[in-house]
Amino acid sequence: MISEIENFANYPRSVADIRSDASNRASDWAPRDVLIEMLRKIDGGLKIEALSVAYSWDEGESHFSSYLAAAPTVALGVGVASMALHKMIKDSTE
Hints:
Elements: H1 15-23, H2 31-43, E1 51-59, E2 62-70, H3 74-92
Antiparallel strand pairs: 1-2
């Protein structure tokens, strides 16, 4: 059981979160806002079976990227990431 402190189901939405909903632009919110929204969905009862998170960071003149994934199979994890990429491209052209 998740304690009240760890439960994000009723965590308040940020201004950036609301703005991003209206604009449909990823640049309107911070990576932390995205993670909190995902936790809000999971703690609210969304039963996800796989999660892939891609991220990037800079260190001076160098740029890096990596990922974290939780999936019962590699194929499902890659499939989720691929479908999400397709949706991101489609949504950005609408």
